[in-house]
Amino acid sequence: MEKWTRIRLAAAAVVLALYGTGAAYFRQHSFPNTKVDGVEASYLTPEEAFQRIRKETAEGAVTVSVKDRQYQLPRAEVLSVAEDAPIRQGFAGQNTLLWPLEFFRSHELSSGKNLSFDRVRAEELLEEQGLFQLDIAPVDAKISDYSPESGFTVLPDEDGWRGGRKEIMDAIQEAAVQDALELDLTERFAVKAERSSEDSVLCQLCAEQNALAHHSYILKLGEEERELDGTILSGWLRETRDGGRGLDAAAITAYADALPDQFDAALKTLGAEQGERYIIDTVLFQHILAAKLGVTLPVPETAAQTRAREKSNEKLLKEAQRKAKRAKTPEEAERILAEAEAELVPEPEMLAVRLSSQEERSAGDADTAQSASGAEQTERYDTICLTDGIYIENVESAEAREERRRKAEKQYGPASRSNALIPDDPEEEAETASPSSAERHILAEEEIYIPVIAADPEFQLGYGLDYIDIDIEKQHVILFENGRKIMESDCVTGTPNRARETHKGVFQINYKQRNRVLRGSQRLYASFVNYWMPFDAGIGLHDATWRGQFGGTIYKSSGSHGCVNLPLSFAKKLYKRVYAGETVYVH
């Protein structure tokens, strides 16, 4: 009995000794399973735990990010723990009397560390890495280049970046003392673009460009095919004065004028089959293409209209300059001139622009009433050979003659397919009868059949379907309409010397005038003419009633002063048919 009592007392003494030793130990050390700020800190004195926290704080770097750029601040150089009092207070709060139970518990302590940030050193490091020199301009959203797959798209805008030195350092210090390892300053100092990808005007322009250019057509003539796709069409896009989009009319014309070379073999095959010379109606092709694209082609300014516009602008500027001279201050004079310049009439924009819905409906209705087949276009003339030996005229029907008269009165030009209205609805189908299927043009979804017409051998490409041909060597004038010789006559041109020769080149009828007295330079002569059609300054076509003969070599010894002299009967009929702006080809 006494033996067991002694054993119990001895065991109790050992337990008490162990308990006391543990209590004494944990008064100076942390409990097992202890972490300070997430750092393993079991069985450590406050000093040891503090050093471990300091070491942990000094490891790694603070990473500052701006977009795709990164700047490193080594923590050992810019951060330090200011004091260990919070750790000591945390350890002092341990209940050492219950230390045996703490082996089965987790202990998460906060050092409450007060980090010290070396701002001067951090600024030096960032200066070396170029952060303060970083200045990124924002990029506005814009329309992409053309892609055959997706057409035009709106490329997203990109924020810029710009920050002041103090503001940048304040943000970094704020994050660093909170023990942050990463700091992204991209959004904080972002500079927004002026135009975003959601901009309604930009999106509308993109849609407009796709409507104009994101197409693909197969051009057909006989067995030959060519592709006209968005890669080509997009190259014709131009900006209008009001910021919209249009297609360069000159580029469209150049493309149409190149079609004869591309389809040369097909044209020859068609001519051999039909026993006629065939040419591509390039003007009609442009109207067909315009209809497919839903655009209206611009009307070129005539020489007379150009002179009138320039004269009006000149008058407006001179008046403004006179007013500016009387202005009381330089500012007022500058304002007067600026206002005058704003009122000047600009030359027409030669751009094909999209039709409004109302215009499309009107054009479609007009076309229904005026569309005519190729057969009708070529059969409306009856050939009559006159017997006076001077000229031949192909006389048209009364209905066609009346239509031409109305056009000429309004200076619209001849009532031919050169200016006929074409369907503006791409879904509608219009066919032109012809000697063979190759001449038909069908406004289908993906195909355009190249329109062709029969042309006389003398007709030359490059001057439109309607033009006046003046051959100086042959002393001959021909009026072509739709590639057909309508009228022709012998003539007398200028004496071939520097002072009196008829200039060669491509011109336009400036205007028409009846009963005009023509006076030479220095008033050396005065001639009355019944029909006056100038095309090269003071040089023009007119009747010459004082002459009894025309043609041959008369011009070499008794030529005009530069004008093209015509028989009265021919001049009268020519005057009725030609219009201001019609091409005159002198060669």
From TrEMBL:
GO terms for cellular component: extracellular region. Residues 304-333, 357-379, 398-438 are annotated as: Disordered. Keywords: Cell shape, Cell wall biogenesis/degradation, Lipoprotein, Peptidoglycan synthesis, Transferase. One of its GO terms (molecular function) is peptidoglycan L,D-transpeptidase activity. GO terms for biological process: cell wall organization; peptidoglycan-protein cross-linking; regulation of cell shape. The active site is at H542 (proton donor/acceptor), C563 (nucleophile). Gene3D superfamilies: L,D-transpeptidase catalytic domain-like. The keyword Cell wall biogenesis/degradation applies. SUPFAM superfamilies: L,D-transpeptidase catalytic domain-like. The keyword Transferase applies. Pathway: Cell wall biogenesis; peptidoglycan biosynthesis. InterPro entries: LD-transpeptidase, LD_TPept_cat_dom, Transpep_catalytic_dom. PROSITE patterns: LD_TPASE (PS52029). It holds the Pfam family YkuD. Residues 307-333, 398-410 have a biased composition (Basic and acidic residues). Residues 466-587 form the L,D-TPase catalytic domain. This is Lipoprotein-anchoring transpeptidase ErfK/SrfK. It comes from Moryella indoligenes.
